[in-house]
Amino acid sequence: MPANAQGNRSWAGHGRLTMPVTAVDASTVGDAPARQLTLIADHLDEHLLPHSGHLVPVDAPADLAAIVAATAARATSARA
């Protein structure tokens, strides 16, 4: 994760992500992905799935599908 954080800091020097960004955190990493994304994302939506491990699509497929659908809806409404 330190390498990911360093990469995110480097990307931040090239501009910020202005579109809706969603971080899906799981029990194995906690809120680390969201904390890293706060460096570069203006509109961050975080979801913690404490009952999921590294393989969120396997461990919590319905939760992940709902999160992806909600993110798509936010992106659509942001363009309107």
Feature tags:
80 residues, alpha+beta
Describe what you observe in this structure.
With 80 residues, the chain is an alpha+beta fold. 50% of the residues lie in helices and 24% in strands. It has four helices and two strands; from the N terminus they run αβαβαα. The protein has helices at 2-12, 32-37, 56-59, 61-79, and strands spanning 17-26, 41-49. Strands 1-2 form a two-stranded parallel ribbon. The N and C termini lie far apart (36 Å).
Give the helix/strand layout:
Elements (H helix, E strand, L loop, with lengths): L1 H11 L4 E10 L5 H6 L3 E9 L6 H4 L1 H19 L1
Parallel strand pairs: 1-2
Short description:
The chain has helices at residues 2-12, 32-37, 56-59, 61-79, and strands at residues 17-26, 41-49. The protein is of the alpha+beta class and 80 residues long.
Give me the side-by-side strand order of the main sheet.
1-2
User: What is the N-to-C succession of helices and strands?
Assistant: HEHEHH
Alpha-carbon distance between the termini? 36 Å
Profile the largest sheet.
2 strands, parallel
Mean pLDDT: 86
Please bin the fraction of helical residues. 40-55%
Radius of gyration: 13 Å
The shape, in one word, is flat
Structural class: alpha+beta
Q: Would you identify the regions where 5 or more consecutive residues have pLDDT less than 50? A: none
Query: What's the total count of β strands?
Result: 2
The amount of beta strand, in percent, is 15-25%
How many helices?
A: 4
